[in-house]
Amino acid sequence: MIDIRGLTVEYEGGIKALDGVDLVISEGDSLGLIGANGAGKSSLFRSLTGLTAFKGSIMFNGLEVIKKNMPEIRKDIGYVIQESDDQMFMPKVIEDMIFGPVNYGMAKDDAVKKADEILEQLEISHLKDRYNHKISGGEKKMAAIATILMMKPKVILFDEPTSSLDPHNRRTVINAIMEIEATKIVASHDLDLIYDICDKVALLNRGCIVKVGSKDEILRDKKLLEENGLELPLSFSGR
User: Fold this and answer.
1) What phi, psi does 87 have (nearest 5°)?
2) Which residue of 80, 108, 110, 126 sits 20 to 30 Å from the alpha carbon of 20, by its own alpha carbon?
3) pLDDT digits (tens, 9 = 90+) for 133-185
């Protein structure tokens, strides 16, 4: 589904956020992106969605990620960014949810009906008519996920989906992500979350892919993680 070859992202001052990354993501994968701060996780997401300039090539379902193809590609990629406040821009949850589909031509009544189905699926129907600035961080994260699901993306990118959430809301978000039927790429410092959600893991360090493998192969390897500025998930650290 996604074929990345020689992906390089360089910012001002010659700083390379990504340096020759090769990565293949198949349909139905649940892939975790892990790495210390500055490893390049967010830059990879921004490259996939055409939000930053890059060298190399990215193919998405046979389409090259270049400017002229982005309208078509973005129909199939959902991006749940780290700060939900930056994603939810309409006054009410329902208004955010129907904004994209209506602008792509769906009748408003049909969009509202679809929104009701997704809200029920995520068990957040009570948020439908709530104002975004009056709901909690966990509720806002769930609403942001609901907004992305409205577009029926084939791939969903999650950037630190549980950051700043309390344990209850963290578990609610994890359960919701696990139930989503789409190819999922999750970037997080929360390695327990990655272990719960993902089947495969890609470890990055200083803009390079160090290793790609099964979650057990990478997340149980204490030496590998420590060499790349990470620690064992809390679930394993006491074993």
Assistant:
1) -100, -35
2) 80
3) 899 888 888 899 999 999 889 999 999 988 878 888 888 888 888 988 899 99
CATH code of the domain containing 28: 3.40.50.300
CB 72 within 8 A of CB 43: no
Q: Is 23 within 8 Å of 185 (Cβ atoms)?
A: no
| Identity of residue 150 | M
Distance CA 34, CA 159 (A): 11
For the stretch 106-135, pLDDT in tens is 999 999 999 999 999 888 999 999 999 899
Q: What is the pTM of this model?
A: 0.90
Residue ranges making up the domain that contains 19: 1-76+199-232
Domain count, the chain: 1
**For the CA atoms of 49, 141, 111, 96, what is the dihedral angle to 10 degrees?**
-80
- Rounded Cα distance between 127 and 136, Å, is 11
234: tokens are 């809390």
- Give the whole-angstrom CA distance, residue 230 versus residue 227: 7
